[in-house]
Specification:
The chain has two domains: 1-38; 49-92, HU Protein, Chain A (Irregular), CATH 4.10.520. It is an alpha+beta fold. The protein is 43% helix and 30% strand. Helix 1 crosses helix 2. The radius of gyration is 19 Å and the shape is elongated. The relative contact order is 0.12.
Length: 92
Amino acid sequence: MNKSELVKELAEENNISTEESTMFVEMFFDSVRNALLEDGRVEIRGFGSFKIKSYKGYTGRNPKTGQSVEVPPKKLPSFRAGKELKEVINVS
């Protein structure tokens, strides 16, 4: 499911316009994005949690040329599924 499918399903399930549904989805994503930027963690009980992982810089190697390359430190978002979501997915 992609973002436009989510918007469409939300609109159909709740008898609201696509514009309203788009606004709600955008507000949710913006809230998650802002919370990650400020606190570095978002937890949705029963679904999972998002957090920011920080990685240190290191000296890597370009596989094509063999030259050493400095890789700068970076932060990446990560998602960990919650217990209830894992159970729902693993029901046979």
